[in-house]
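Appendix B. Chain record.
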Amino acid sequence: MAANTPCGLVSLNHVGVVPKNEKEMEQNQTQMTKDNNTNIDYTQRAQWLRAAVLGANDGLVSVASLMMGVGAVKRDVKAMLLAGFAGSIAGACGMAIGEFVSVYTQYEVEVSQMKRDMDMSGYKECEKVEFEMRMEKRRTLPNPMHAALASALSFTMGALVPLLSAAFISDYKIRLLVVVAMASLALVIIGILGAELGKTPKLWSCVRVLVGGWMAMAVTFGLTKSIGSSGLEL
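Structure tokens predicted for this chain:
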């Protein structure tokens, strides 16, 4: 009887449905696999992609801006490199900790909301299991540790660009120009990679990160230069 059928299952014997043979089932399974390979849900990449792009962009821009700020008042390459190295270590640790705390908070909020939805639903026990399975499929819960590691690693990789650019150049003006040029090139690459992985427009992504990086470096250099020119002993 249909009344004895478990939740989520429908008995088809009473309507005369003939089970498919093994060949048809294999064909359907192959087609389903092809559909799953072609229909990629790019929203599942959003969490780690956001952390990676944010970390790389932040590491590149903040360390390059820090080195430009020091270079505005100090011509010594050692001062620029020490400032950039300290900024890269502090920034990577700060990004990892901040990302872990924020993402774990988001994780707890989503899990708590799912539990409240189940308690308020008033479903039977078997229907609650189905409800939980649907919620798990609909919501891709973030992984705090993955986000933290992605942020720290990408921040460090981004910070290496201005550090390596200035490490072997003794001339002051050429050093600043090379840092700006290499940082700009890296920003364009970050924009292209982020757009490619997320399947978004590449041009707008490149312009967004490039202009933002230029503004950060220019403001840091200009303000630090003005403080140094005002007679403050550094």
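Further analysis of this model is presented in Appendix C.
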